[in-house]
Amino acid sequence: MIPIEHQHVLKTLNKLLQGQYMGVHSYEQFIKNLDDSSPLRNRFITIQKDLKHHAALLSERIQQLHGTPATSEGVIGKIERNISQLLDHPKDEKDILKHAIKGENLYGIKMTEKLVRDELDSESLNLVHEILDKQRDHVDYLKSELH
């Protein structure tokens, strides 16, 4: 039996984990759309690797709290991704950068900050802050490439 105070933390951590999976899949699409000769391609692969690492860290924390980690972005995440793929086709590197910045800012950072407000124990919160710092670094890099 999972203690009641952990249940809420686990739910929040799993939502964050699903968000990391959404990011991994988004970068998969970006990487596919970038030309092999693009200098952005390797950087996007590195960012995707960071997101996979964040997912692993969140999964580990969920297991430490005796929870079961999510294994995908969930139904809502899949629907959002499919709609985005249908309506939003980045055409060039600038478009891809704009989409990546929007995804990192809106879904990666802002949603995470909103989700974790007063919702986590200190160890989980420290982990999330490390992830957010790395995502802010991603956004700074993406913005520098855009300008």
UniProtKB/TrEMBL annotation:
Transmembrane portions of the chain: none
Family annotation (SUPFAM superfamilies): Ferritin-like
Domain DUF2383: 9-114
Name used for this protein in its record: DUF2383 domain-containing protein
Pfam family, one: DUF2383
Alphabetized InterPro entries for the sequence: DUF2383, Ferritin-like, Ferritin-like_SF
